Amino acid sequence: MTSGPRSLDRAATWSKRTDGWGVVVHGGAGDIDGDRGPLHAAGCRSAAIAASRAVESGATAVEAAAIAIEALEDNPLYNAGTGAALDERGELSLDASIMCGATLDAGGVCNLPPFAHPIAIAKAMLLEGRRVLLAGEGAAEWAERHGFARVDAASMTTDVARARLEAVRRGLVEPNWAGGTVGCVVRDREGRLAAATSTGGVVGKPRGRVGDSPIIGAGTYADDAAGAVSNTGDGEAFLRFVAAKTAIEHMRSGASCVEGISMVLESMGRTLDGYGGTIAIDALGFVGWARTTMNMSWAAFGEGWNEPQSGF
Ligand code: ASP
Protein backbone atom coordinates (compact mmCIF):
# COMPACT_ATOMS: atom_id res chain seq x y z
CA MET A 1 0.00 0.00 0.00
CA THR A 2 1.17 3.49 -0.63
CA SER A 3 -0.25 6.40 1.26
CA GLY A 4 -1.38 8.92 -1.28
CA PRO A 5 -3.73 11.78 -0.49
CA ARG A 6 -7.09 10.76 0.84
CA SER A 7 -10.26 12.72 0.78
CA LEU A 8 -13.96 12.28 1.16
CA ASP A 9 -14.23 12.72 -2.63
CA ARG A 10 -13.15 9.11 -2.84
CA ALA A 11 -15.96 7.86 -0.64
CA ALA A 12 -17.81 4.90 -2.10
CA THR A 13 -20.47 2.50 -0.88
CA TRP A 14 -22.06 -0.76 -1.96
CA SER A 15 -25.05 -2.65 -0.61
CA LYS A 16 -27.17 -5.66 -1.54
CA ARG A 17 -30.03 -7.62 -0.02
CA THR A 18 -29.83 -11.31 0.83
CA ASP A 19 -32.72 -13.73 1.36
CA GLY A 20 -31.32 -14.91 4.69
CA TRP A 21 -27.74 -15.71 5.60
CA GLY A 22 -24.94 -13.42 4.45
CA VAL A 23 -21.15 -13.02 4.62
CA VAL A 24 -18.98 -9.95 3.92
CA VAL A 25 -15.16 -10.00 4.08
CA HIS A 26 -12.64 -7.17 3.78
CA GLY A 27 -8.93 -7.36 3.10
CA GLY A 28 -8.05 -3.87 4.34
CA ALA A 29 -8.59 -0.27 3.30
CA GLY A 30 -5.80 1.77 1.78
CA ASP A 31 -4.47 2.83 -1.56
CA ILE A 32 -3.64 -0.49 -3.22
CA ASP A 33 -0.90 0.05 -5.76
CA GLY A 34 -0.22 -1.65 -9.06
CA ASP A 35 -1.72 -5.01 -9.80
CA ARG A 36 -2.25 -6.15 -6.24
CA GLY A 37 -5.95 -5.22 -6.14
CA PRO A 38 -7.23 -8.30 -7.99
CA LEU A 39 -5.08 -10.57 -5.79
CA HIS A 40 -6.44 -8.97 -2.64
CA ALA A 41 -10.01 -9.30 -3.93
CA ALA A 42 -9.45 -12.95 -4.92
CA GLY A 43 -8.26 -13.83 -1.41
CA CYS A 44 -11.34 -12.15 0.06
CA ARG A 45 -13.53 -14.09 -2.35
CA SER A 46 -12.05 -17.48 -1.31
CA ALA A 47 -12.47 -16.56 2.35
CA ALA A 48 -16.10 -15.46 1.79
CA ILE A 49 -16.85 -18.70 -0.04
CA ALA A 50 -15.32 -20.78 2.78
CA ALA A 51 -17.40 -18.92 5.39
CA SER A 52 -20.55 -19.22 3.24
CA ARG A 53 -20.13 -22.98 2.85
CA ALA A 54 -19.79 -23.26 6.61
CA VAL A 55 -22.96 -21.21 7.15
CA GLU A 56 -24.87 -23.31 4.61
CA SER A 57 -23.80 -26.43 6.51
CA GLY A 58 -25.16 -24.98 9.75
CA ALA A 59 -22.12 -23.24 11.30
CA THR A 60 -22.81 -20.37 13.69
CA ALA A 61 -21.98 -16.82 12.62
CA VAL A 62 -19.03 -16.81 15.03
CA GLU A 63 -17.65 -20.07 13.61
CA ALA A 64 -18.03 -18.87 10.03
CA ALA A 65 -16.42 -15.47 10.69
CA ALA A 66 -13.43 -17.21 12.30
CA ILE A 67 -13.11 -19.55 9.30
CA ALA A 68 -12.87 -16.58 6.92
CA ILE A 69 -10.37 -14.74 9.10
CA GLU A 70 -8.15 -17.81 9.60
CA ALA A 71 -7.95 -18.25 5.81
CA LEU A 72 -6.87 -14.61 5.45
CA GLU A 73 -4.38 -14.89 8.36
CA ASP A 74 -2.77 -17.80 6.47
CA ASN A 75 -2.53 -15.73 3.27
CA PRO A 76 0.75 -13.74 3.29
CA LEU A 77 -0.79 -11.01 1.12
CA TYR A 78 -2.65 -9.55 4.07
CA ASN A 79 -1.56 -7.64 7.15
CA ALA A 80 -2.81 -10.33 9.56
CA GLY A 81 -1.23 -13.53 10.82
CA THR A 82 1.50 -14.57 8.35
CA GLY A 83 2.70 -11.48 6.49
CA ALA A 84 1.52 -9.01 9.15
CA ALA A 85 3.14 -5.59 9.50
CA LEU A 86 6.25 -5.34 11.68
CA ASP A 87 6.67 -2.90 14.56
CA GLU A 88 9.57 -0.45 15.01
CA ARG A 89 11.78 -3.29 16.30
CA GLY A 90 10.94 -5.54 13.36
CA GLU A 91 8.72 -7.72 15.54
CA LEU A 92 5.23 -9.11 15.00
CA SER A 93 2.66 -7.89 17.50
CA LEU A 94 -0.79 -9.09 16.51
CA ASP A 95 -4.28 -7.75 17.30
CA ALA A 96 -7.62 -9.51 16.76
CA SER A 97 -11.18 -9.55 18.09
CA ILE A 98 -14.48 -11.34 17.52
CA MET A 99 -17.99 -10.71 18.82
CA CYS A 100 -21.23 -12.72 18.91
CA GLY A 101 -24.31 -10.58 18.28
CA ALA A 102 -26.65 -13.08 19.93
CA THR A 103 -25.00 -13.06 23.37
CA LEU A 104 -22.74 -9.98 23.17
CA ASP A 105 -19.90 -12.29 24.20
CA ALA A 106 -16.58 -11.18 22.78
CA GLY A 107 -12.89 -12.06 22.79
CA GLY A 108 -9.79 -10.15 21.80
CA VAL A 109 -6.00 -10.25 21.89
CA CYS A 110 -3.58 -7.37 21.41
CA ASN A 111 0.20 -7.10 21.23
CA LEU A 112 0.16 -10.87 20.83
CA PRO A 113 3.55 -12.42 19.92
CA PRO A 114 3.56 -14.74 16.88
CA PHE A 115 0.72 -17.28 16.79
CA ALA A 116 -0.62 -18.53 13.46
CA HIS A 117 -4.26 -17.58 14.13
CA PRO A 118 -4.84 -14.75 16.60
CA ILE A 119 -8.56 -14.89 15.72
CA ALA A 120 -8.76 -18.51 16.94
CA ILE A 121 -7.44 -17.41 20.33
CA ALA A 122 -9.95 -14.52 20.42
CA LYS A 123 -12.73 -16.99 19.54
CA ALA A 124 -11.66 -19.36 22.33
CA MET A 125 -11.88 -16.43 24.77
CA LEU A 126 -15.34 -15.56 23.45
CA LEU A 127 -16.49 -19.14 23.90
CA GLU A 128 -15.05 -19.30 27.42
CA GLY A 129 -17.09 -16.17 28.20
CA ARG A 130 -14.92 -14.71 30.97
CA ARG A 131 -12.35 -12.24 29.61
CA VAL A 132 -12.89 -9.91 26.67
CA LEU A 133 -9.32 -8.68 26.02
CA LEU A 134 -5.87 -10.01 26.92
CA ALA A 135 -2.57 -8.35 25.98
CA GLY A 136 0.98 -9.38 25.19
CA GLU A 137 2.63 -12.18 27.16
CA GLY A 138 -0.50 -12.64 29.27
CA ALA A 139 -2.51 -13.33 26.12
CA ALA A 140 0.21 -15.68 24.87
CA GLU A 141 0.25 -17.64 28.14
CA TRP A 142 -3.56 -17.89 28.11
CA ALA A 143 -3.36 -19.17 24.53
CA GLU A 144 -0.77 -21.80 25.42
CA ARG A 145 -2.87 -22.99 28.36
CA HIS A 146 -5.77 -23.39 25.92
CA GLY A 147 -3.87 -25.51 23.42
CA PHE A 148 -2.46 -22.92 21.00
CA ALA A 149 1.21 -23.14 20.05
CA ARG A 150 3.60 -20.23 19.58
CA VAL A 151 5.10 -19.97 16.11
CA ASP A 152 8.63 -19.04 15.12
CA ALA A 153 8.53 -15.35 14.09
CA ALA A 154 10.65 -16.02 11.00
CA SER A 155 8.04 -18.39 9.57
CA MET A 156 5.37 -15.66 9.76
CA THR A 157 7.54 -12.76 8.54
CA THR A 158 7.52 -12.07 4.83
CA ASP A 159 10.05 -10.21 2.67
CA VAL A 160 7.30 -7.73 1.78
CA ALA A 161 6.74 -6.95 5.47
CA ARG A 162 10.50 -6.46 5.95
CA ALA A 163 10.68 -4.20 2.89
CA ARG A 164 7.75 -2.08 4.09
CA LEU A 165 9.38 -1.56 7.47
CA GLU A 166 12.64 -0.61 5.77
CA ALA A 167 10.81 1.92 3.58
CA VAL A 168 9.20 3.50 6.66
CA ARG A 169 12.52 3.57 8.52
CA ARG A 170 14.19 5.33 5.60
CA GLY A 171 11.36 7.83 5.35
CA LEU A 172 10.53 6.69 1.81
CA VAL A 173 6.82 6.38 2.63
CA GLU A 174 4.69 8.25 5.09
CA PRO A 175 4.23 6.16 8.25
CA ASN A 176 0.66 5.07 7.93
CA TRP A 177 -1.52 2.08 8.45
CA ALA A 178 -0.31 -0.81 6.36
CA GLY A 179 -3.51 -1.77 4.57
CA GLY A 180 -4.34 -5.46 4.45
CA THR A 181 -6.09 -5.76 7.81
CA VAL A 182 -8.81 -8.40 7.49
CA GLY A 183 -12.38 -8.52 8.72
CA CYS A 184 -15.58 -10.50 8.35
CA VAL A 185 -19.25 -10.06 9.28
CA VAL A 186 -21.76 -12.89 9.09
CA ARG A 187 -25.47 -13.55 9.50
CA ASP A 188 -26.07 -17.27 9.92
CA ARG A 189 -29.16 -19.33 9.07
CA GLU A 190 -30.64 -18.66 12.52
CA GLY A 191 -30.24 -14.88 12.10
CA ARG A 192 -27.32 -14.68 14.53
CA LEU A 193 -24.72 -12.02 13.70
CA ALA A 194 -20.96 -11.97 14.26
CA ALA A 195 -18.07 -9.62 13.49
CA ALA A 196 -14.33 -10.32 13.50
CA THR A 197 -11.15 -8.36 12.69
CA SER A 198 -7.43 -9.27 12.65
CA THR A 199 -4.32 -7.18 11.95
CA GLY A 200 -0.63 -6.58 12.47
CA GLY A 201 -1.48 -2.89 12.85
CA VAL A 202 0.66 -0.10 11.48
CA VAL A 203 4.07 -0.60 9.85
CA GLY A 204 6.84 0.55 12.20
CA LYS A 205 4.38 1.13 15.06
CA PRO A 206 5.85 1.94 18.44
CA ARG A 207 6.20 -1.07 20.72
CA GLY A 208 2.93 -1.50 22.65
CA ARG A 209 0.76 0.46 20.21
CA VAL A 210 -2.78 -0.92 19.93
CA GLY A 211 -5.21 0.18 17.23
CA ASP A 212 -8.95 -0.24 16.88
CA SER A 213 -8.98 -3.82 15.56
CA PRO A 214 -8.89 -5.73 18.88
CA ILE A 215 -11.11 -3.20 20.67
CA ILE A 216 -14.77 -4.14 20.93
CA GLY A 217 -16.78 -1.07 19.96
CA ALA A 218 -13.98 0.56 17.94
CA GLY A 219 -12.87 -2.01 15.34
CA THR A 220 -15.47 -4.73 15.82
CA TYR A 221 -19.06 -4.94 17.05
CA ALA A 222 -22.09 -7.21 16.64
CA ASP A 223 -25.59 -7.05 18.07
CA ASP A 224 -28.37 -9.22 16.62
CA ALA A 225 -30.87 -6.43 17.28
CA ALA A 226 -29.03 -3.99 14.98
CA GLY A 227 -26.07 -5.23 12.91
CA ALA A 228 -22.43 -6.27 12.78
CA VAL A 229 -19.42 -4.20 11.70
CA SER A 230 -15.66 -4.62 11.07
CA ASN A 231 -13.45 -1.58 10.45
CA THR A 232 -10.12 -1.05 8.73
CA GLY A 233 -8.01 2.06 8.32
CA ASP A 234 -6.84 4.83 10.64
CA GLY A 235 -6.97 2.99 13.96
CA GLU A 236 -6.48 6.03 16.16
CA ALA A 237 -9.46 7.75 14.48
CA PHE A 238 -11.67 4.66 14.80
CA LEU A 239 -10.73 4.47 18.50
CA ARG A 240 -11.60 8.13 19.11
CA PHE A 241 -14.93 7.64 17.35
CA VAL A 242 -15.79 4.34 19.08
CA ALA A 243 -16.62 3.79 15.46
CA ALA A 244 -18.05 0.27 15.31
CA LYS A 245 -20.50 0.78 18.16
CA THR A 246 -21.47 4.22 16.85
CA ALA A 247 -22.38 2.71 13.47
CA ILE A 248 -24.40 0.00 15.22
CA GLU A 249 -26.33 2.67 17.17
CA HIS A 250 -27.17 4.43 13.88
CA MET A 251 -28.59 1.11 12.62
CA ARG A 252 -30.53 0.62 15.85
CA SER A 253 -32.07 4.05 15.25
CA GLY A 254 -33.29 3.02 11.79
CA ALA A 255 -30.36 3.61 9.43
CA SER A 256 -29.62 0.86 6.92
CA CYS A 257 -26.29 -0.87 7.46
CA VAL A 258 -24.61 1.10 4.69
CA GLU A 259 -26.07 4.40 5.90
CA GLY A 260 -24.87 3.69 9.45
CA ILE A 261 -21.27 2.98 8.46
CA SER A 262 -21.15 5.84 5.92
CA MET A 263 -22.28 8.36 8.53
CA VAL A 264 -19.44 7.32 10.82
CA LEU A 265 -16.77 7.32 8.09
CA GLU A 266 -17.87 10.70 6.77
CA SER A 267 -17.89 12.42 10.13
CA MET A 268 -14.56 10.78 11.03
CA GLY A 269 -13.04 12.16 7.83
CA ARG A 270 -14.50 15.61 8.36
CA THR A 271 -13.66 16.03 12.03
CA LEU A 272 -10.47 13.99 12.50
CA ASP A 273 -9.13 13.73 8.95
CA GLY A 274 -9.29 9.99 9.61
CA TYR A 275 -10.03 7.58 6.76
CA GLY A 276 -10.79 3.92 6.29
CA GLY A 277 -13.36 1.37 5.31
CA THR A 278 -16.08 -0.68 6.97
CA ILE A 279 -18.08 -3.81 6.16
CA ALA A 280 -21.50 -4.35 7.67
CA ILE A 281 -24.49 -6.64 7.82
CA ASP A 282 -27.81 -5.85 9.44
CA ALA A 283 -30.72 -7.62 11.04
CA LEU A 284 -32.96 -6.94 8.01
CA GLY A 285 -30.97 -8.95 5.45
CA PHE A 286 -28.72 -6.29 3.94
CA VAL A 287 -24.96 -6.50 3.52
CA GLY A 288 -22.71 -3.64 2.47
CA TRP A 289 -19.51 -1.71 2.70
CA ALA A 290 -18.34 1.91 2.69
CA ARG A 291 -14.90 3.42 2.36
CA THR A 292 -13.22 6.83 2.31
CA THR A 293 -9.89 5.45 1.04
CA MET A 294 -9.03 4.82 -2.60
CA ASN A 295 -9.52 1.06 -2.22
CA MET A 296 -10.73 -1.64 0.06
CA SER A 297 -10.61 -5.24 -1.12
CA TRP A 298 -13.83 -7.06 -0.27
CA ALA A 299 -16.10 -9.98 -1.10
CA ALA A 300 -19.66 -10.88 -0.18
CA PHE A 301 -22.03 -13.78 -0.62
CA GLY A 302 -25.61 -14.25 0.50
CA GLU A 303 -28.59 -16.55 0.40
CA GLY A 304 -30.37 -16.34 -2.94
CA TRP A 305 -27.37 -15.02 -4.91
CA ASN A 306 -26.02 -16.92 -7.88
CA GLU A 307 -22.41 -16.10 -7.09
CA PRO A 308 -20.22 -14.09 -4.71
CA GLN A 309 -19.49 -10.41 -5.42
CA SER A 310 -16.01 -9.01 -4.93
CA GLY A 311 -13.81 -6.04 -5.77
CA PHE A 312 -11.21 -3.58 -4.49
N1 ASP B 1 -7.00 -0.25 11.82
C1 ASP B 1 -5.75 -0.97 11.88
C2 ASP B 1 -4.93 -0.43 13.00
O1 ASP B 1 -4.97 0.76 13.24
C3 ASP B 1 -4.97 -0.89 10.60
C4 ASP B 1 -5.72 -1.23 9.33
O2 ASP B 1 -6.93 -1.40 9.33
O3 ASP B 1 -5.06 -1.36 8.27
O4 ASP B 1 -4.19 -1.16 13.61
Provide an overview of this structure:
The structure is a single chain. The chain starts with 11 loop residues before the first strand and ends with a strand. The protein has 312 residues and is an alpha+beta fold. The relative contact order is 0.22. It has one domain (8-303): Glutamine Phosphoribosylpyrophosphate, subunit 1, domain 1, CATH 3.60.20.30. The strands form 2 sheets. Strands 5-4-3-7-6-2-12-13 form an 8-stranded mixed β-sheet. A 5-stranded antiparallel β-sheet has the order 1-11-10-9-8. A hairpin with a 5-residue loop joins strand 3 and strand 4. The chain contains 9 helices and 13 strands. The structure holds aspartic acid. The site of aspartic acid has 15 residues, from strand 9.
The CATH topology? Glutamine Phosphoribosylpyrophosphate, subunit 1, domain 1
Quickly count the helices.
9
How many strands in all?
13
Assess the beta-strand content as a share of residues.
25-35%
CATH superfamily: (Glycosyl)asparaginase
- How does the helix and strand content classify structurally? alpha+beta
> Bound compounds, please?
aspartic acid
Task: Quickly give the CATH architecture.
Answer: 4-Layer Sandwich
Describe the structure concisely:
With 312 residues, this protein is α+β, with helices and mostly antiparallel strands. The protein has one domain (8-303): (Glycosyl)asparaginase (Glutamine Phosphoribosylpyrophosphate, subunit 1, domain 1), CATH 3.60.20.
